[in-house]
Amino acid sequence: MILRKLSSKPSNTRPKVAGQEDSFHYGNTEVVLLKADNANLPIKVDVIVTTINSNLNHGIATASSTIAEKAGIPLQRKIQEQKIKLPLGEDDIIATSGGKLACSKVYYVTLLPRKQHHTAAIKTLIWKCLEKANLSSFKSLAFPALGTGKLHYPHSDVAYAMFGAVGEYSAANPTSSVCRVFFVILPSNTDVLNAFKEANKNLKESQLLNSTRENWDLCDEFPMQNEEAIPERMTPDFCLYMYNAKIHPPSYWTRFTSDKTVKDWNTGQPPCTLVDIDKNSNTFTVIKGLVEGTWEADIQGIGRDADGLDGLQYGGLKITRIQRVENLILYEQYATRRQVMFLASGKAGIYPKLSDVPDMKGGSSHIKELLNNEWANQLYNEVNEEYFFHGTKTDRVGQVYAQGLDPRLAANGTQGPAVYMAESSTKADQYTDTRSARQSNGLTMFLVRACLGNICRMTKCRQMRRPPCTDSSCSNDECQHVDRYDSVVAEELFIFREFVVYDRNQVYPEYVISYDRV
Protein backbone atom coordinates (compact mmCIF):
# COMPACT_ATOMS: atom_id res chain seq x y z
CA MET A 1 0.00 0.00 0.00
CA ILE A 2 1.28 3.46 -0.87
CA LEU A 3 0.23 6.12 1.62
CA ARG A 4 -0.49 9.63 0.45
CA LYS A 5 1.93 12.31 1.58
CA LEU A 6 0.95 15.43 3.46
CA SER A 7 2.21 18.82 2.42
CA SER A 8 3.23 21.56 4.82
CA LYS A 9 4.13 23.91 1.95
CA PRO A 10 0.96 24.52 -0.05
CA SER A 11 1.28 26.25 -3.37
CA ASN A 12 -1.66 28.59 -2.63
CA THR A 13 -0.96 29.85 0.88
CA ARG A 14 -3.77 31.83 2.50
CA PRO A 15 -3.19 34.61 5.05
CA LYS A 16 -3.04 33.34 8.63
CA VAL A 17 -6.19 33.55 10.72
CA ALA A 18 -6.06 35.06 14.20
CA GLY A 19 -5.37 32.18 16.58
CA GLN A 20 -3.99 29.89 13.87
CA GLU A 21 -1.47 27.44 15.32
CA ASP A 22 -0.53 25.54 12.18
CA SER A 23 -1.84 24.21 8.88
CA PHE A 24 -1.05 21.88 6.02
CA HIS A 25 -2.61 20.78 2.74
CA TYR A 26 -3.93 17.36 2.00
CA GLY A 27 -4.75 17.32 -1.69
CA ASN A 28 -6.99 20.31 -2.32
CA THR A 29 -8.02 20.64 1.33
CA GLU A 30 -6.27 22.89 3.83
CA VAL A 31 -6.49 21.75 7.44
CA VAL A 32 -6.08 24.60 9.96
CA LEU A 33 -5.45 24.10 13.67
CA LEU A 34 -7.12 27.09 15.33
CA LYS A 35 -6.96 28.22 18.95
CA ALA A 36 -10.38 29.83 19.35
CA ASP A 37 -14.00 29.34 20.41
CA ASN A 38 -16.44 27.95 17.82
CA ALA A 39 -19.05 30.36 19.15
CA ASN A 40 -16.75 33.34 18.43
CA LEU A 41 -14.71 32.44 15.38
CA PRO A 42 -12.27 35.06 14.02
CA ILE A 43 -13.29 34.10 10.46
CA LYS A 44 -16.62 33.28 8.83
CA VAL A 45 -17.08 29.71 7.61
CA ASP A 46 -19.86 27.96 5.77
CA VAL A 47 -20.55 25.40 8.51
CA ILE A 48 -19.91 25.17 12.23
CA VAL A 49 -20.18 21.62 13.57
CA THR A 50 -21.19 21.21 17.19
CA THR A 51 -22.05 18.22 19.34
CA ILE A 52 -25.28 17.86 21.23
CA ASN A 53 -26.69 14.95 23.21
CA SER A 54 -29.21 12.57 21.65
CA ASN A 55 -32.11 14.44 23.30
CA LEU A 56 -30.96 17.80 21.87
CA ASN A 57 -30.12 19.15 25.31
CA HIS A 58 -27.70 22.08 25.00
CA GLY A 59 -27.03 22.36 28.70
CA ILE A 60 -25.02 19.16 29.09
CA ALA A 61 -22.02 20.19 26.96
CA THR A 62 -20.38 23.55 27.60
CA ALA A 63 -19.40 24.13 23.97
CA SER A 64 -22.90 23.33 22.72
CA SER A 65 -24.42 25.61 25.35
CA THR A 66 -22.15 28.48 24.27
CA ILE A 67 -23.07 27.90 20.61
CA ALA A 68 -26.78 27.99 21.42
CA GLU A 69 -26.46 31.16 23.50
CA LYS A 70 -24.49 32.97 20.80
CA ALA A 71 -26.78 31.80 17.97
CA GLY A 72 -29.82 33.41 19.55
CA ILE A 73 -33.37 32.54 20.59
CA PRO A 74 -34.76 31.90 17.06
CA LEU A 75 -32.11 29.25 16.42
CA GLN A 76 -32.72 27.63 19.81
CA ARG A 77 -36.39 27.36 18.89
CA LYS A 78 -35.47 25.75 15.58
CA ILE A 79 -33.56 23.07 17.46
CA GLN A 80 -36.50 22.43 19.77
CA GLU A 81 -38.71 21.92 16.71
CA GLN A 82 -36.45 19.02 15.73
CA LYS A 83 -37.34 17.02 18.83
CA ILE A 84 -39.80 14.98 16.82
CA LYS A 85 -36.70 13.20 15.44
CA LEU A 86 -35.49 12.07 18.86
CA PRO A 87 -33.45 10.28 19.85
CA LEU A 88 -30.72 11.66 17.59
CA GLY A 89 -28.43 8.89 16.35
CA GLU A 90 -24.76 9.06 15.46
CA ASP A 91 -25.70 8.78 11.79
CA ASP A 92 -27.98 11.84 12.01
CA ILE A 93 -27.13 15.45 11.25
CA ILE A 94 -29.51 18.29 12.05
CA ALA A 95 -28.78 21.42 10.02
CA THR A 96 -30.02 24.90 10.89
CA SER A 97 -29.16 28.41 9.81
CA GLY A 98 -26.21 30.07 11.50
CA GLY A 99 -28.18 32.74 13.32
CA LYS A 100 -25.72 35.20 14.91
CA LEU A 101 -22.78 32.83 14.55
CA ALA A 102 -19.98 33.34 12.04
CA CYS A 103 -21.37 30.75 9.64
CA SER A 104 -24.16 30.05 7.19
CA LYS A 105 -25.18 26.71 8.71
CA VAL A 106 -24.80 24.81 11.96
CA TYR A 107 -24.58 21.01 11.88
CA TYR A 108 -25.69 19.37 15.15
CA VAL A 109 -24.26 15.89 15.67
CA THR A 110 -24.04 13.46 18.55
CA LEU A 111 -21.46 11.01 19.88
CA LEU A 112 -22.14 8.25 22.40
CA PRO A 113 -20.09 7.21 25.43
CA ARG A 114 -17.77 4.31 24.57
CA LYS A 115 -14.58 2.69 25.76
CA GLN A 116 -13.42 1.51 22.36
CA HIS A 117 -13.94 2.22 18.65
CA HIS A 118 -14.16 5.95 19.42
CA THR A 119 -11.82 6.85 16.55
CA ALA A 120 -13.98 4.95 14.05
CA ALA A 121 -17.07 6.83 15.29
CA ILE A 122 -15.30 10.19 14.94
CA LYS A 123 -14.02 9.33 11.49
CA THR A 124 -17.49 8.33 10.26
CA LEU A 125 -19.06 11.47 11.72
CA ILE A 126 -16.53 13.75 10.01
CA TRP A 127 -17.04 11.99 6.68
CA LYS A 128 -20.79 12.49 6.90
CA CYS A 129 -20.37 16.19 7.68
CA LEU A 130 -17.95 16.67 4.77
CA GLU A 131 -20.26 14.78 2.41
CA LYS A 132 -23.26 16.86 3.45
CA ALA A 133 -21.29 20.08 3.04
CA ASN A 134 -20.13 19.01 -0.42
CA LEU A 135 -23.73 18.37 -1.53
CA SER A 136 -24.46 22.03 -0.69
CA SER A 137 -21.25 23.21 -2.42
CA PHE A 138 -19.90 24.53 0.88
CA LYS A 139 -16.18 25.25 1.07
CA SER A 140 -15.30 25.52 4.75
CA LEU A 141 -16.22 23.79 8.02
CA ALA A 142 -15.17 24.28 11.64
CA PHE A 143 -15.06 21.24 13.95
CA PRO A 144 -14.53 21.17 17.71
CA ALA A 145 -12.24 18.56 19.28
CA LEU A 146 -14.89 15.85 19.14
CA GLY A 147 -15.46 13.77 22.24
CA THR A 148 -12.76 15.40 24.37
CA GLY A 149 -15.19 16.95 26.85
CA LYS A 150 -17.60 14.97 29.00
CA LEU A 151 -17.10 11.84 26.88
CA HIS A 152 -13.40 11.75 27.83
CA TYR A 153 -12.17 10.26 24.57
CA PRO A 154 -8.34 10.04 24.59
CA HIS A 155 -7.07 13.33 23.21
CA SER A 156 -4.36 11.83 21.04
CA ASP A 157 -6.74 9.31 19.47
CA VAL A 158 -9.20 12.08 18.67
CA ALA A 159 -6.50 14.20 17.04
CA TYR A 160 -5.27 11.40 14.78
CA ALA A 161 -8.84 10.39 13.92
CA MET A 162 -9.81 13.89 12.86
CA PHE A 163 -6.69 14.54 10.79
CA GLY A 164 -6.97 11.10 9.22
CA ALA A 165 -10.65 11.45 8.34
CA VAL A 166 -10.14 14.72 6.47
CA GLY A 167 -7.10 13.34 4.68
CA GLU A 168 -8.87 10.20 3.54
CA TYR A 169 -11.96 12.11 2.46
CA SER A 170 -9.85 14.46 0.36
CA ALA A 171 -8.07 11.54 -1.31
CA ALA A 172 -11.34 9.75 -2.07
CA ASN A 173 -13.18 12.92 -3.23
CA PRO A 174 -10.70 15.05 -5.21
CA THR A 175 -13.46 17.18 -6.76
CA SER A 176 -15.22 17.99 -3.47
CA SER A 177 -16.14 21.64 -2.93
CA VAL A 178 -14.73 21.50 0.62
CA CYS A 179 -11.29 23.11 0.56
CA ARG A 180 -10.74 24.35 4.12
CA VAL A 181 -11.35 22.58 7.43
CA PHE A 182 -10.72 24.15 10.85
CA PHE A 183 -10.07 22.17 14.01
CA VAL A 184 -11.07 24.66 16.69
CA ILE A 185 -9.60 24.15 20.18
CA LEU A 186 -10.52 26.33 23.15
CA PRO A 187 -7.44 28.25 24.41
CA SER A 188 -8.15 26.97 27.92
CA ASN A 189 -7.99 23.31 26.76
CA THR A 190 -4.20 23.15 26.76
CA ASP A 191 -4.04 19.35 26.99
CA VAL A 192 -6.27 18.96 23.95
CA LEU A 193 -4.40 21.66 22.04
CA ASN A 194 -1.07 20.02 22.79
CA ALA A 195 -2.37 16.64 21.61
CA PHE A 196 -3.45 18.14 18.27
CA LYS A 197 -0.17 20.02 17.89
CA GLU A 198 1.78 16.85 18.60
CA ALA A 199 -0.27 14.85 16.10
CA ASN A 200 0.19 17.58 13.49
CA LYS A 201 3.94 17.64 14.14
CA ASN A 202 4.27 13.88 13.87
CA LEU A 203 2.28 13.76 10.64
CA LYS A 204 4.48 16.41 9.10
CA GLU A 205 7.67 14.75 10.20
CA SER A 206 6.69 11.38 8.82
CA GLN A 207 4.92 12.91 5.80
CA LEU A 208 2.44 10.07 6.13
CA LEU A 209 -1.12 9.61 7.23
CA ASN A 210 -0.47 6.49 9.27
CA SER A 211 -3.34 4.54 10.64
CA THR A 212 -1.95 2.65 13.60
CA ARG A 213 -5.03 3.43 15.69
CA GLU A 214 -7.94 1.06 15.19
CA ASN A 215 -6.84 -0.20 11.74
CA TRP A 216 -8.07 2.70 9.62
CA ASP A 217 -8.26 2.12 5.89
CA LEU A 218 -6.27 4.57 3.79
CA CYS A 219 -6.53 5.12 0.07
CA ASP A 220 -3.81 3.90 -2.27
CA GLU A 221 -2.19 6.68 -4.21
CA PHE A 222 0.15 6.97 -7.13
CA PRO A 223 3.17 9.01 -5.98
CA MET A 224 3.09 12.17 -8.08
CA GLN A 225 6.19 14.18 -8.97
CA ASN A 226 4.52 17.10 -7.18
CA GLU A 227 3.11 15.53 -4.05
CA GLU A 228 1.85 18.79 -2.59
CA ALA A 229 -1.59 18.59 -4.19
CA ILE A 230 -3.89 16.52 -6.32
CA PRO A 231 -2.95 17.25 -9.95
CA GLU A 232 -4.87 19.86 -11.89
CA ARG A 233 -8.02 18.63 -13.61
CA MET A 234 -8.02 17.90 -17.34
CA THR A 235 -4.34 16.94 -17.32
CA PRO A 236 -2.55 13.62 -17.96
CA ASP A 237 -1.24 13.74 -14.37
CA PHE A 238 -4.77 13.88 -12.98
CA CYS A 239 -5.79 10.95 -15.19
CA LEU A 240 -2.87 8.93 -13.85
CA TYR A 241 -3.82 9.88 -10.30
CA MET A 242 -7.41 8.68 -10.85
CA TYR A 243 -6.22 5.48 -12.52
CA ASN A 244 -4.36 4.56 -9.33
CA ALA A 245 -7.00 5.65 -6.80
CA LYS A 246 -8.98 3.19 -4.73
CA ILE A 247 -12.66 2.97 -5.61
CA HIS A 248 -15.10 4.44 -3.10
CA PRO A 249 -18.88 4.81 -3.45
CA PRO A 250 -19.98 8.31 -4.49
CA SER A 251 -19.99 10.77 -1.58
CA TYR A 252 -23.77 11.28 -1.80
CA TRP A 253 -24.68 7.60 -1.38
CA THR A 254 -26.35 6.94 1.96
CA ARG A 255 -26.53 3.16 2.37
CA PHE A 256 -22.99 2.47 1.23
CA THR A 257 -21.12 5.58 2.30
CA SER A 258 -17.80 6.73 0.86
CA ASP A 259 -15.85 6.37 4.10
CA LYS A 260 -15.13 2.78 3.03
CA THR A 261 -13.92 1.40 -0.26
CA VAL A 262 -16.30 -0.56 -2.45
CA LYS A 263 -14.31 -3.71 -1.73
CA ASP A 264 -14.65 -3.14 2.01
CA TRP A 265 -18.41 -2.69 1.67
CA ASN A 266 -18.71 -5.77 -0.53
CA THR A 267 -17.47 -7.99 2.30
CA GLY A 268 -20.55 -9.50 3.90
CA GLN A 269 -22.96 -6.84 2.64
CA PRO A 270 -25.99 -7.25 0.35
CA PRO A 271 -24.55 -5.74 -2.83
CA CYS A 272 -27.55 -3.73 -4.00
CA THR A 273 -30.21 -1.51 -2.49
CA LEU A 274 -32.69 1.09 -3.72
CA VAL A 275 -32.80 4.35 -1.79
CA ASP A 276 -35.96 6.45 -2.05
CA ILE A 277 -35.25 10.10 -2.84
CA ASP A 278 -37.22 12.60 -0.74
CA LYS A 279 -39.49 14.73 -2.94
CA ASN A 280 -38.33 17.82 -1.05
CA SER A 281 -34.63 17.08 -1.58
CA ASN A 282 -32.21 18.80 -3.91
CA THR A 283 -31.62 15.51 -5.74
CA PHE A 284 -35.31 15.09 -6.56
CA THR A 285 -35.52 18.72 -7.70
CA VAL A 286 -32.48 18.41 -9.98
CA ILE A 287 -33.64 15.18 -11.65
CA LYS A 288 -37.17 16.52 -12.06
CA GLY A 289 -35.62 19.59 -13.69
CA LEU A 290 -33.64 17.42 -16.11
CA VAL A 291 -36.74 15.49 -17.16
CA GLU A 292 -38.78 18.66 -17.63
CA GLY A 293 -35.92 20.71 -19.11
CA THR A 294 -35.16 18.21 -21.86
CA TRP A 295 -38.80 17.53 -22.72
CA GLU A 296 -39.50 18.63 -26.32
CA ALA A 297 -43.26 18.98 -26.66
CA ASP A 298 -43.13 20.12 -30.29
CA ILE A 299 -41.69 16.79 -31.45
CA GLN A 300 -43.39 14.50 -28.93
CA GLY A 301 -45.10 11.65 -30.77
CA ILE A 302 -43.12 12.14 -34.00
CA GLY A 303 -41.06 9.31 -35.50
CA ARG A 304 -41.26 5.54 -35.84
CA ASP A 305 -40.30 4.84 -32.24
CA ALA A 306 -43.12 7.13 -31.08
CA ASP A 307 -45.86 5.13 -32.80
CA GLY A 308 -49.03 5.01 -30.69
CA LEU A 309 -48.15 7.93 -28.42
CA ASP A 310 -50.31 10.48 -30.26
CA GLY A 311 -53.44 8.67 -29.15
CA LEU A 312 -52.65 9.36 -25.47
CA GLN A 313 -52.83 13.12 -25.97
CA TYR A 314 -50.36 14.09 -23.25
CA GLY A 315 -48.06 17.07 -23.02
CA GLY A 316 -45.48 16.09 -20.46
CA LEU A 317 -44.29 13.72 -17.74
CA LYS A 318 -45.15 13.77 -14.04
CA ILE A 319 -42.55 12.13 -11.81
CA THR A 320 -44.10 10.03 -9.06
CA ARG A 321 -40.99 8.49 -7.50
CA ILE A 322 -37.20 8.54 -7.79
CA GLN A 323 -34.91 5.86 -6.34
CA ARG A 324 -31.13 5.81 -6.30
CA VAL A 325 -29.50 2.50 -7.20
CA GLU A 326 -26.63 1.74 -4.81
CA ASN A 327 -25.27 -1.43 -6.40
CA LEU A 328 -21.73 -2.15 -5.22
CA ILE A 329 -20.92 -4.77 -7.85
CA LEU A 330 -22.18 -2.74 -10.82
CA TYR A 331 -20.55 0.43 -9.54
CA GLU A 332 -17.18 -1.29 -9.04
CA GLN A 333 -17.33 -2.65 -12.58
CA TYR A 334 -18.22 0.80 -13.89
CA ALA A 335 -15.56 2.63 -11.87
CA THR A 336 -12.89 0.09 -12.84
CA ARG A 337 -13.70 0.57 -16.54
CA ARG A 338 -13.60 4.34 -15.98
CA GLN A 339 -10.11 4.03 -14.48
CA VAL A 340 -8.87 2.25 -17.61
CA MET A 341 -10.35 5.07 -19.68
CA PHE A 342 -8.60 7.63 -17.45
CA LEU A 343 -5.30 5.95 -18.26
CA ALA A 344 -6.00 5.94 -22.00
CA SER A 345 -7.23 9.54 -22.01
CA GLY A 346 -4.13 10.69 -20.15
CA LYS A 347 -1.84 8.93 -22.61
CA ALA A 348 -3.74 10.55 -25.49
CA GLY A 349 -3.35 14.02 -23.99
CA ILE A 350 -7.04 14.10 -22.87
CA TYR A 351 -9.83 13.09 -25.21
CA PRO A 352 -11.79 15.87 -26.95
CA LYS A 353 -14.96 16.84 -25.09
CA LEU A 354 -18.27 15.93 -26.70
CA SER A 355 -18.73 19.49 -27.96
CA ASP A 356 -15.18 19.50 -29.42
CA VAL A 357 -15.41 16.25 -31.38
CA PRO A 358 -14.67 17.13 -35.03
CA ASP A 359 -17.81 18.10 -36.99
CA MET A 360 -20.10 17.46 -33.99
CA LYS A 361 -23.20 19.59 -34.66
CA GLY A 362 -25.16 19.00 -31.46
CA GLY A 363 -22.57 20.41 -29.06
CA SER A 364 -22.67 19.51 -25.37
CA SER A 365 -25.38 17.18 -24.11
CA HIS A 366 -28.66 18.89 -23.23
CA ILE A 367 -28.53 17.30 -19.78
CA LYS A 368 -25.07 18.61 -18.95
CA GLU A 369 -26.15 22.10 -19.97
CA LEU A 370 -28.86 21.96 -17.29
CA LEU A 371 -26.67 20.65 -14.45
CA ASN A 372 -25.75 22.97 -11.61
CA ASN A 373 -22.12 23.15 -10.46
CA GLU A 374 -22.64 20.58 -7.72
CA TRP A 375 -23.87 17.94 -10.16
CA ALA A 376 -21.50 18.90 -12.98
CA ASN A 377 -18.53 18.49 -10.63
CA GLN A 378 -19.55 14.89 -9.94
CA LEU A 379 -18.76 14.01 -13.56
CA TYR A 380 -15.29 13.57 -15.04
CA ASN A 381 -14.83 15.45 -18.30
CA GLU A 382 -11.45 13.75 -18.74
CA VAL A 383 -13.30 10.60 -19.85
CA ASN A 384 -16.42 12.36 -21.17
CA GLU A 385 -18.58 11.13 -18.32
CA GLU A 386 -22.20 12.19 -18.81
CA TYR A 387 -25.71 11.70 -17.48
CA PHE A 388 -28.25 10.32 -19.95
CA PHE A 389 -31.78 8.91 -19.97
CA HIS A 390 -32.58 5.32 -20.86
CA GLY A 391 -36.20 4.25 -21.32
CA THR A 392 -36.99 0.80 -19.94
CA LYS A 393 -40.14 -1.29 -19.95
CA THR A 394 -41.46 -1.81 -16.44
CA ASP A 395 -41.00 -5.58 -16.38
CA ARG A 396 -37.26 -5.16 -17.03
CA VAL A 397 -36.50 -2.51 -14.42
CA GLY A 398 -35.41 -4.97 -11.73
CA GLN A 399 -33.10 -6.73 -14.13
CA VAL A 400 -31.44 -3.43 -15.09
CA TYR A 401 -30.69 -2.13 -11.60
CA ALA A 402 -29.55 -5.57 -10.43
CA GLN A 403 -27.53 -6.67 -13.48
CA GLY A 404 -26.94 -3.51 -15.49
CA LEU A 405 -27.65 -2.64 -19.10
CA ASP A 406 -26.41 -5.51 -21.25
CA PRO A 407 -25.92 -4.94 -25.01
CA ARG A 408 -26.07 -8.71 -25.54
CA LEU A 409 -29.77 -8.53 -24.72
CA ALA A 410 -30.45 -5.40 -26.78
CA ALA A 411 -32.35 -5.30 -30.03
CA ASN A 412 -30.50 -4.08 -33.12
CA GLY A 413 -30.49 -0.29 -33.37
CA THR A 414 -29.05 2.02 -35.98
CA GLN A 415 -25.52 1.17 -34.83
CA GLY A 416 -26.01 -2.51 -34.01
CA PRO A 417 -26.70 -4.25 -30.67
CA ALA A 418 -25.54 -1.84 -27.98
CA VAL A 419 -26.68 0.33 -25.08
CA TYR A 420 -28.52 3.36 -26.49
CA MET A 421 -28.99 6.51 -24.41
CA ALA A 422 -30.75 9.83 -24.90
CA GLU A 423 -30.16 13.43 -23.88
CA SER A 424 -33.90 14.09 -24.13
CA SER A 425 -36.62 12.69 -21.87
CA THR A 426 -38.91 12.84 -24.92
CA LYS A 427 -36.73 10.29 -26.68
CA ALA A 428 -36.37 8.01 -23.64
CA ASP A 429 -40.13 8.08 -23.07
CA GLN A 430 -40.66 6.36 -26.44
CA TYR A 431 -39.13 3.11 -25.14
CA THR A 432 -40.88 2.68 -21.79
CA ASP A 433 -43.77 0.62 -23.20
CA THR A 434 -44.59 -1.27 -26.38
CA ARG A 435 -45.89 0.57 -29.44
CA SER A 436 -48.95 -1.66 -29.61
CA ALA A 437 -49.94 -1.17 -25.95
CA ARG A 438 -49.18 2.40 -24.94
CA GLN A 439 -50.20 3.43 -21.42
CA SER A 440 -50.45 6.63 -19.40
CA ASN A 441 -49.38 5.49 -15.93
CA GLY A 442 -46.70 3.45 -14.21
CA LEU A 443 -43.79 4.05 -16.59
CA THR A 444 -40.04 4.00 -15.88
CA MET A 445 -36.84 5.45 -17.25
CA PHE A 446 -33.31 5.50 -15.82
CA LEU A 447 -30.92 8.37 -15.34
CA VAL A 448 -27.60 6.68 -16.07
CA ARG A 449 -23.96 7.64 -15.76
CA ALA A 450 -21.96 6.84 -18.87
CA CYS A 451 -18.32 7.19 -19.88
CA LEU A 452 -18.14 8.00 -23.58
CA GLY A 453 -14.33 8.23 -23.61
CA ASN A 454 -13.00 8.73 -27.12
CA ILE A 455 -16.09 9.55 -29.18
CA CYS A 456 -16.77 8.65 -32.82
CA ARG A 457 -19.32 10.84 -34.60
CA MET A 458 -21.49 8.76 -36.94
CA THR A 459 -23.89 10.10 -39.58
CA LYS A 460 -25.04 6.85 -41.16
CA CYS A 461 -26.53 3.57 -40.04
CA ARG A 462 -23.88 0.93 -39.49
CA GLN A 463 -24.39 -2.45 -37.89
CA MET A 464 -21.49 -2.95 -35.43
CA ARG A 465 -20.80 -5.18 -32.47
CA ARG A 466 -18.10 -2.91 -31.06
CA PRO A 467 -16.95 0.68 -31.62
CA PRO A 468 -15.15 1.43 -34.89
CA CYS A 469 -11.37 1.74 -35.06
CA THR A 470 -9.81 5.19 -35.27
CA ASP A 471 -8.59 4.57 -38.83
CA SER A 472 -11.07 6.62 -40.88
CA SER A 473 -10.36 4.56 -44.00
CA CYS A 474 -11.51 1.33 -42.31
CA SER A 475 -15.19 0.34 -42.32
CA ASN A 476 -14.90 -3.16 -40.86
CA ASP A 477 -15.68 -3.43 -37.15
CA GLU A 478 -13.98 -6.86 -37.12
CA CYS A 479 -10.67 -5.38 -38.28
CA GLN A 480 -7.40 -6.06 -36.46
CA HIS A 481 -6.66 -2.41 -35.67
CA VAL A 482 -5.88 -1.93 -32.00
CA ASP A 483 -6.82 1.72 -31.55
CA ARG A 484 -10.61 1.97 -31.27
CA TYR A 485 -13.14 4.53 -30.18
CA ASP A 486 -15.02 3.98 -26.92
CA SER A 487 -18.47 5.16 -28.05
CA VAL A 488 -20.54 6.39 -30.95
CA VAL A 489 -22.70 9.49 -31.16
CA ALA A 490 -25.12 9.22 -34.06
CA GLU A 491 -26.47 12.53 -35.30
CA GLU A 492 -28.19 13.91 -38.40
CA LEU A 493 -29.76 10.49 -38.92
CA PHE A 494 -33.14 11.01 -37.30
CA ILE A 495 -34.84 13.53 -35.01
CA PHE A 496 -32.72 12.90 -31.91
CA ARG A 497 -29.04 12.25 -31.34
CA GLU A 498 -28.25 8.78 -30.00
CA PHE A 499 -25.40 8.00 -27.60
CA VAL A 500 -24.14 4.44 -28.00
CA VAL A 501 -21.72 2.22 -26.06
CA TYR A 502 -20.93 -1.45 -26.62
CA ASP A 503 -19.38 -2.25 -23.24
CA ARG A 504 -21.93 -2.71 -20.42
CA ASN A 505 -19.37 -1.52 -17.89
CA GLN A 506 -19.32 1.96 -19.41
CA VAL A 507 -22.84 2.58 -18.08
CA TYR A 508 -24.14 2.70 -14.51
CA PRO A 509 -27.96 2.89 -14.01
CA GLU A 510 -27.97 5.28 -11.06
CA TYR A 511 -31.54 6.54 -10.69
CA VAL A 512 -34.89 4.85 -11.33
CA ILE A 513 -37.46 7.46 -12.38
CA SER A 514 -41.11 6.40 -12.11
CA TYR A 515 -43.57 8.65 -13.91
CA ASP A 516 -46.96 9.14 -15.56
CA ARG A 517 -47.79 10.76 -18.89
CA VAL A 518 -49.99 13.81 -18.28
Describe the structure.
The protein is of the alpha/beta class. It folds into two domains: 20-219, Leucine Aminopeptidase, subunit E, domain 1 (3-Layer(aba) Sandwich), CATH 3.40.220; 270-412 and 420-454 and 505-517, Phosphoenolpyruvate Carboxykinase, domain 3, CATH 3.90.228.10. 27% of the residues lie in helices and 20% in strands. The protein has 13 helices and 18 strands. A seven-stranded mixed β-sheet has the order 1-2-7-6-3-5-4, with helices on both faces. Strands 8-9-18-14-10 form a five-stranded antiparallel β-sheet, sandwiched between helices. Strand 4 and strand 5 form a beta hairpin. The longest helix is centred in the middle third of the chain and has 20 residues, at 328-347.
- The CATH superfamily of the largest domain appears as Leucine Aminopeptidase, subunit E, domain 1
Distance between the termini: 55 Å
Spatial strand sequence of the major β-sheet: 1-2-7-6-3-5-4
Radius of gyration: 25 Å
Total helical segments: 13
Number of strands: 18
Mean pLDDT: 84
Strand content: 15-25%
**Shape by Cα distribution:** globular
What is the total number of structural domains? Answer: 2
The CATH topology annotation of the largest domain reads as Leucine Aminopeptidase, subunit E, domain 1
